[in-house]
Each structure stands twice: as structure tokens, then as C-alpha cells.
């Protein structure tokens, strides 16, 4: 199993969620985030307004998937989140040792 963390532009969230839904991913955690990369302070267009900033609004997605789904999930996120401009985001895949569904006690892939 792998935990996939993806940082994407907020206006791409719906497209990413839809892309993941089409490949069978039904659950994820979504958090608002702020951050910066190599470019640090620059002018950004967000919801029609230009502003200078050092921390841009982002959305962080977290999901745990079976090893067999990892490549499809990464491909779906990349395709849906890509604008071709600076700040499209990052995807990180981390190993997961154990998952437990609290309600039922199911373990690992059964708990996903």
C-alpha cells in the first residue's frame, strides 16, 4: 500500500477529484494549504486577481491506495492538475505498513 500526497492548485481540485473517481478512487482527505517552491515571491493570477506573494494557496490531497493502483492514481492526478505553468504542484508516494478501519476492525487493503 502507498499513501499518495498531492499538492495542487485549488481551481484544479474538481478536475482531480473527477479523474480519481473515474479510476475507482472514492475516498481521500482534502486540506487547504499554502506554500512556495523555487520561485518564492512572484506575481500570480488567482481567481482573476493578480497579486505578489511568497506563499500561494494550494490544496493537499491525501489518499491510501493498493500498490496496483499507484501508477494509475499518479497519472490521473498529473493529467488533471497540469496547467503547464509554474506551481502545478507535487505528488509524493510513501509506503504504508498498516491501515485499520476503526468501525469494523478491517485491516490493510480490506480497510481501504
**What is the share of helical residues?**
10-25%
List how many beta strands DSSP finds: 6
Task: Categorize the overall geometry.
Answer: elongated
Beta fraction? 35-45%
The ordered H/E elements are: EHEEEEHE
Would you tell me the overall average pLDDT? Answer: 90
Runs with pLDDT <50, length 5+? Answer: none
Radius of gyration: 16 Å
Strand order of the largest sheet: 2-5-1-6
Structural class: alpha+beta
C-alpha end-to-end distance: 10 Å
* Main sheet properties: 4 strands, antiparallel
* Count of DSSP H/I helices: 2
What does this entry show, briefly?
The protein is an alpha+beta fold and 112 residues long. It has helices at 13-22, 70-81, and strands at 2-8, 29-35, 42-46, 49-53, 56-65, 89-95.
Report on the structure:
The chain has helices at 13-22, 70-81; strands at residues 2-8, 29-35, 42-46, 49-53, 56-65, 89-95. Strands 2-5-1-6 form a four-stranded antiparallel β-sheet, covered by helices on one side. A two-stranded antiparallel ribbon has the order 3-4. It has 112 residues and is an alpha+beta fold. The longest helix is centred in the last third of the chain and has 12 residues, at 70-81. The protein starts with a strand and ends in a 17-residue tail after the last strand. Helix content is 20%, strand content 37%.
SSE arrangement:
Elements: E1 2-8, H1 13-22, E2 29-35, E3 42-46, E4 49-53, E5 56-65, H2 70-81, E6 89-95
Antiparallel strand pairs: 1-5, 1-6, 2-5, 3-4
